[in-house]
Specification:
alpha+beta, five-stranded antiparallel β-sheet, 2 domains, Beta-Lactamase, 287 residues, 28% strand
Length: 287
């Protein structure tokens, strides 16, 4: 069981890295600290490449930290690969006697592995990688294992959160690019009537600044285009959409403009209604 001194060490490690937002730097700083704490010679952190079923080395410490980057690692192969596959931690006191140990790594790096501690990195029930420590003076203990497992759980949450944030950011950028390049106007509101999205063409046609209307209540944002506000609000309230409708407005100069529009209901994956949207084209020249 971990003693108060070890719990203090866990707190210090987590506290030291909590403001590091670059994942690669965070993992390298963590590895350095955990190696110092456990008093081992070297260590590595691997993250799972789910598409290739491989382990990607993302941090390394020790005399083999340069050569090891050129070695491929597969899930299920070797001690680290088996830990990832089974999600079970492992201490190996005599690696050369373990059937899972791959001596090729030592041969290629010139590093002599004397003992190993390896724990899986698990976040929300899914294994995302592994932390492997090598060559502790003496032997790795169960307290060492518990210490690494507890810190690994914290690191795993940070890594997975970063991954999800990156994926969400990429998706948002892709969606934003679609909206930015749409030939017509698009505007969306949430279930309370607050404008959440308005693309450049919509802002141009309706003669508003995007930054000025985003986040505002529909009728507050478009006092001079109440007709558009009515259409979106009606869609929100009645939960019914229309297609290929026409409407005539007056621009700020008092000249008539004709719009062709369709409305949509915006739902999440569970079918919950989040708001509504409208797409429209300026048909003034055609009409």
């Amino acid at each position: 069981m971990l003693q108060s001194e070890q719990l203090k060490i866990i707190y210090e490690i987590v506290n030291d890295i909590r403001f590091i937002y670059d994942i690669n730097r965070l993992l390298n700083v963590y590895l350095e600290k955990i190696c110092q704490t456990v008093k081992c010679e070297a260590g590595s952190i691997f993250l799972v490449d789910f598409q290739r079923d491989e382990l990607k080395l993302v941090a390394a410490k020790g005399s083999a930290d340069t050569a090891i980057h050129s070695i491929p690692f597969k899930v299920g192969i070797g001690i680290c690969g088996k830990v990832v596959q089974t999600q079970e931690s492992k201490i190996v006191h005599n690696p050369q006697d373990d059937e899972l140990f791959n001596p090729t790594v030592d041969a290629l790096t010139g590093f002599k592995t004397l003992n190993i501690l390896c724990v899986p990195m698990i976040s929300t029930g899914k294994v995302i990688g592994a932390i492997e420590l090598l060559n502790k003076k003496g032997k790795f203990s169960e307290d060492d294992l518990e210490l690494v497992m507890l810190t690994a759980s914290q690191i795993s949450i940070v890594v997975e959160t970063s991954r999800l944030y990156t994926e969400i950011l990429k998706l948002k950028n892709f969606t934003d690019s679609i909206l930015e390049n749409m030939p017509g106007g698009f505007m969306a509101i949430d279930s309370f009537g607050t404008i959440t999205t308005i693309n450049p063409n919509a802002a141009r046609i309706l003669e508003v600044e995007r930054i000025a209307v985003t986040g505002k209540f529909l009728y507050e944002a478009f006092p001079h285009h109440k007709e558009i506000a009515d259409i979106l609000w009606d869609t929100n309230q009645k939960k019914k959409t229309v297609t290929r409708q026409d409407i005539k407005l007056l621009n700020r100069a008092g000249d008539p403009i004709a719009l062709g529009y369709s409305t949509i209901i915006i739902k999440d994956r569970e079918g919950n209604i989040l708001g509504s949207g409208i797409t429209f084209q300026d048909l003034t020249k055609i009409k």
